[in-house]
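re: ur question from earlier - yeah i can do the single chain one, its not a big deal. heres the input i used so u can compare w yours
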Amino acid sequence: MRLIKIAISTGLIVLAPLAVPVTAADRDINLDLFKEVYAQVHAHYVDPVSDKQLLEGAIKGMLGNLDPHSGYMDAKEYAEMRVQNRGEFGGLGLQVTMENGLVKVITPIDDTPAAHAGLKPGDLILGIDDTPVSDMTLSDAVDRLRGAVGTMVKLTIRRQGVDPFQVTLTRAEIHVEPVKYHMEGNDIGYIRITNFSERTSNALKTAVDALKQQAGDKLAGVVLDLRNNPGGLLDQAIEVSNAFLDEGEIVSVRGRLPTDTRHYMVDPQHTLLHGVPVVVLINGGSASASEIVAGALQDQHRAVLLGTRSFGKGSVQTLLPVKESGGAIRLTTARYFTPSGRSIQAKGIDPDVVVEPAKIEKVAQAARIREADLRGALKNPDQATQDKAKPAETSPATAPAPAPAPGTAVVPPEANVPPGTTPVPTSEAAIDANLMGTDADYQLVRAVDLLRGVSLFKKLAAK
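and the output i got, formated as tokens:
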């Protein structure tokens, strides 16, 4: 079976099946192998296994072997993903991953029980309601973290530099505000986009209108904060980029066939900020849709990027609903490219101005995991071409670094983020979410200083 693209809806490419010739011999060999293994497991596994469990396990294994972002969602997971796309869900407000048999906090979501309780990026959850997480899979742990609104859950936490402690949280309905904003003084606007859900572009317009009203004719610049933003919907990334650009290309999406290529261009009618200087903040937690926006503004010379290198997820995932089960397949179907034609897959976007967070903001010390470290990550097509042109390196000093240890692949957060997003373990120079956008945020301070310097230079040049 082959797939062709027929439409694009809410940033998720909708595909329809197209039959292609498959020889009877190939079909028989493949099906006979599967049937033989299926029968052996069904007959001899130590405990009885249902047909549904075996079939869904086989599907998940097939998709999971392709790349880190392809997978299968059952009906329950698919329903939760659709709710997540709306930016509303129940739980504690934690993004988590599994590391060395323990549940690790990626980041607490602002204004949630987890954030109010003081949980921080890098915290390790040792136990949930006195049950050790070492005996759980990540899925089991997530199920225990979730629960009815108003119920309580006790977590045992290990944090670097302190003894293990316990904290009790009350589950709540989580409403994620995708955009936050305020004025820095009376001349610089600050806009932080936390995710790219269905409400992001409308929330951005509200923020821009409010900042313009507050600043009047004194708006000297805008800081667009995309740090720790794991991404989201493609159409929202395009609309956010469009808000800052006057013309040109935003992003192109290229699949396996030439006919799969699509170019997304700026619509001048949707531009919100004409000519206002912009600084974009990025870090290793800026992934996917965040990198589309950052790459577009950088290539179009519309903004200065400040911070540290982004995550490096340059692939596009497509949802294919499965009628038989009520679930859906999440399949990597294309790569995206910035306006200049570069792929950031497994590479990331380098800022124009490298600024590490202040030491006070470094809350975890383990090496950061990026897209290139994930098992089965797609290769960067630009890098592959460069590698072919290079002579072989045999010196021990240039030997490749060891491959990442098994189990380091990024997994969905407790909030079960939308397809195409990648929760990024914040570690190297990680930023406490409670510090972002405050006076203790060193990268923000540098961005504001840069914009005020540009404003001063313009005034001096005009004299």
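Residues 24-44 form the longest helix (21 residues). not sure if urs matches, ping me
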